[in-house]
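Bug report (template v2)

What were you trying to do?
Predict the complex of my protein with flavin mononucleotide.

What happened?
Run completed; filing so the output is reviewed.

Input:
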Amino acid sequence: MTIIKLLEQRTSTRAFLDKPVSESLIKSIFTMAQQSPSNCNVQPWQACVVSGKKKDELKDSLMTAVMSGTPPNPDFNWTAKYEGIHRERQFGSANALYSSIGVTREDKQGRQLAMVRNWSFFDAPHAVFFTMDKYLDIMGAVDLGIYAQSIALLFTEHGISSCMQGALGQFPDPVKNALNLPEQRGILFGMSFGYADNNAVVNKTRTERESIENAVTFFN
Ligand SMILES: Cc1cc2nc3c(=O)[nH]c(=O)nc-3n(C[C@H](O)[C@H](O)[C@H](O)COP(=O)(O)O)c2cc1C
């Protein structure tokens, strides 16, 4: 598949079939993703893939944390509030998602329920947590973003769907406990993945992109 086809086909998937991806395919995709570039080739990513019983246990502890009203305490700074055009686009993507599942603007509970599904991994059979040493901060975050996109596109090439999730970095404590991660390690974000449930309306969500005029300036 060409890169443009992969870019067009990858869309965030939020409902999955109860069908695991074979361990050998997952391993080969993560092996290929090692080709991702990084600043000074430091390759800061430490990816943690959870499946099976471990994923189910982690889902339970994350859901318990979320439902008990524990405030988010991410390892990295996710506090910027979107402004202006960014805020408009944020609303645009939320509206695309909620209208696909028939949740109205006024339906606060419906929105919350949809949000909470992040921490049950949207019922995906697998999730990956993108972690790195905390001190790396923005330098490492750039590399992890590039790495995550490599994985998402490789998944698409192999018929596997995914959703990147900042939500999976919001409650790091249950994740660190379950995966026995050292104190200096931070969880930047995560991604649920598996085979898409193509009958699920949520997977019909489509988002828009800005025209090139408002995104790129060419200088001569
Ligand atoms: C870093 C990052 C964090 C994201 N966090 C979430 C999230 O927590 N929950 C979610 O449902 N989608 C999340 N998304 C998906 C975006 O909403 C989605 O990529 C965007 O609306 C564009 O839609 P598309 O992926 O279908 O093209 C995230 C995407 C990225 C790149």
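What did the reviewer find?
The chain has one domain: 13-205. The mean pLDDT is 97.
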